[in-house]
Amino acid sequence: MKYRGLIATGCALALAGCSSNAELPQRADGVTDVVATTSILADMAKNVAGDRARVTSLVPAGADPHSYEPSLRDVRAVANADVVLANHLLLEDQSVMNTVNEASLDTAHVVKVAETAERYGASLIPLVEDVTLDTPWLGARVIGDIPAGERAVDLVFTDVSGPGDMSAFLTGTFGQPQPYVNTADGLDSRDLIRLPPNAHTHMSWSFTKPGRYEATVEARVGDRVVAHDVVRFAVGVEPGEASIREGHVDVAADLEANQVGVRTDDGKLVHDVIEVPARALQNIPNEPAYRFMGRPGTEVYILPQAVLGKHVHGEIDPHAWHDMRNAKAYVQVIRDELMSADPAGAEEYRRNAQDYLNRIDAVDAQVTHTIYEIPRERRQLVTTHDGYAYLGKAYELNVAGFVSPNPAVEPSARDVVALTRTLEGLKVPAVFLEPSEASRPGTLKEIADQLGVRVCTIHGDTLGPDVPTYLDLMTTNANELKECLS
């Protein structure tokens, strides 16, 4: 093992007392040692281990696992561990994972908890759905056949009301847009999307101002109107309960049912409002081909065309513990790994785990009740970094915005503008900073101060003095959300 020489040197020169500290992992006393990369994993492991096993956290409470650099003390801890628990999914800094992989014994149980938890019922969220796209994909579709002699169905936009202009266009392979609908020059018989029967196309949609839009759409076969209805959009404002926030949907004509509506992924035709979030804000390109949208550099809200929008498979959000159902799967993973490493303690681990699972259930019910007391239209979560998709999904919070995807990415000028529009458009009453961010200047604090928005605290990747346990973290976050958003 490559770190053995460093361990001896570190103990002799830099870590006085490290070899005699009974709280650190060691092989001489026969105690089962569990090393967890984060304080949250360590707390879960302590609840399962009880007094039978010794649990150590590599990343100390209050430190960020995304950027933590392991010490020689951490190398020694891993080298003496019987079980090593890592969240993985790129949560921990690569240097932490290198330490885990290179310093652990061949006999140690090295567990990637988040990935393993899927087998225990955990539900992991692909980042592609909640970050990279972060808007619905809205196309156009015709369902059903047409009479003999007819060749196509026209989806004609006869009226569009709203605070600004709307356009629908298709972007070709080489990036050239082809407008189909554009209200800036008035609507006429050319503002239509023409499709063969049972056909579908991807589209891009733009809106020049925030607010609510209603588009009246007629489905025409030749000169005959077979159906018509209104398609609704909420642009940069809260859409309400019956809304479409993500997924692949189409403005659709169902010729068999004689209806126009929005077709969802499951094949249903609905009349829900399509959300165009404030973070969809972009600047009109300088190329002349985009002049139909407005003046170059002007801000517009864009629902991107599916086939050309950012679409990255395989990127998984690692912050799964913010959904307490996932936390239960974590606990079951830890239980089974401890039982495997120390079979003689199996019954104790099983009993401790069940007691902890029961307490998680109780706190989950409490957290749900607390957050559900926040009026739905005010459940808007804006944070510094994108680490709360699981919290939003589990407890019906809308993750309305964040400064950057992770602490390592600096926000662009567009990110700052989009976040400002989010706070203005949704009338967000408070933004949330993690404790490490609250004490120093930052983009979110500056925007909040400019708009008179309250700044509150949220705990994400680590425990600390205010939240010494995982259950405290979840309860404290729920109470803070209720206090600041209600």
Automatic annotation (TrEMBL):
Q: List the Gene Ontology MF annotations in alphabetical order.
A: metal ion binding
Cite the Pfam families for this sequence.
ZnuA
Query: What main location does UniProt list?
Result: other
Compartments reported by the entry: Cell envelope
Query: Does Metal-binding count among this protein's keywords?
Result: yes
The cellular component terms of Gene Ontology attached to this UniProt record, alphabetical and capped at eight, are: cell envelope
Signal peptide range in chain numbering: 1-22
What superkingdom does the record give? Bacteria
Swiss-Prot/TrEMBL GO biological process terms:
cell adhesion; metal ion transport
Q: Report keywords, A-Z.
A: Metal-binding, Signal, Transport
Q: Which family does it belong to?
A: Belongs to the bacterial solute-binding protein 9 family.
Entry protein name: Anchored repeat ABC transporter, substrate-binding protein
The source organism is Corynebacterium tapiri
